[in-house]
Design a protein that fits this description.
alpha+beta; 434 Repressor (Amino-terminal Domain); Beta-Lactamase; 2 domains; 6-stranded antiparallel beta sheet; 12 helices; 6 strands; 47% helix; globular
Length: 277
């Protein structure tokens, strides 16, 4: 509990130092205290205000790496501060563990690409960050628990009804993911999270068959079709941007200009912008 109290104290200190204006919050009335309110931090991080209160008071269970990264982004923490936050939450950073810190330099790239559906994954394809247009396109990953927000779990356990794949596309995509995971497993052989993921996936025959093979390769960019309940099918190119030294994967979805898919994506972006306003 003492460690979580230190986590809460750090979270409160960083919240207090934030200037609301730097994150676009207009002050409608005089504030009794400096910094962000709990509800404002919660909104920026995509979590509940009650959960923020529990974290600050040491009443919550250990927050996941995804929650830590959401808080770090909302609080505009430096790389060193993010590392400190992860350590306080019990996420040990070492050379034999899969990196989950999203560096400030990567966050700047993410911000520049915010006009597209975008997500960030670690080397096990665990989802660490997604933007509002990603949610508008594929549905909200936040409705699932942390352990289910993994692209391999979503694929092999058939958890996203908005994805349309024919047999050939599915086969290639799954082969590519498994070859990529094999690369990660060899790079981080002592990471317990990698072992847990492989154990879970091994319950599925399709995965076991592919895992028994020898192929080792990086997952490549792919073509995807999202089936949206309102605008219909959207043909998208999934472009994977690897990051130097962090082993993260930024996935940017784009539609070709002038196409039907491009128009539909613009409609989703416009609708999302209206909701924000």
């Amino acid at each position: 509990m003492a460690g979580m109290n230190r986590f809460g104290a750090a979270l409160r200190a960083w919240r207090d130092r934030m200037d609301p204006a730097t994150v676009g919050l207009v002050q409608q009335s005089r504030r009794r205290v400096a910094g962000l309110r709990r509800g404002e931090l919660a909104t920026l991080a995509g979590i509940s205000a009650e959960y923020v209160a529990q974290l600050e008071q040491g009443r919550a269970a250990t927050p996941s790496a995804q929650v830590c990264m959401a808080l770090a982004r909302a609080l505009q923490l430096s790389d060193h501060e993010q590392s400190h936050l992860l350590r306080l939450a019990g996420h040990v950073a070492s050379s034999d563990r899969v990196p989950r810190l999203i560096p400030v330099s990567v966050r700047r790239v993410i911000d520049q690409l915010s006009a597209n559906p975008l997500s960030v994954y670690d080397a096990t394809w665990q989802l660490l960050y997604w933007n509002p247009l990603f949610t508008a396109t594929w549905g909200d990953p936040g409705v699932f628990g942390d352990e289910d927000r993994n692209a391999m779990i979503v694929q092999f356990e058939d958890r996203n009804p908005r994805v349309r794949q024919n047999a050939a596309e599915r086969s290639w995509f799954e082969q590519s993911l498994v070859a990529d995971l094999r690369t990660t497993a060899s790079r981080y052989p002592n990471d317990p999270d990698v072992a847990v993921l492989i154990e879970r996936l091994s319950r599925i025959a399709r995965f076991r068959e592919l895992w028994s093979g020898p192929t080792v390769a990086a997952h490549e960019s792919a073509h995807k079709i999202a089936v949206h309940p309102e605008v219909g099918e959207i043909a998208l190119d999934a472009n994977i941007l690897p990051t130097q030294d962090s082993d993260l994967r930024i996935v940017v979805l784009t539609a070709r200009p002038g196409t039907d898919a491009w128009s539909k994506l613009n409609r989703l972006a416009t609708a999302e912008a209206r909701e924000v306003v």
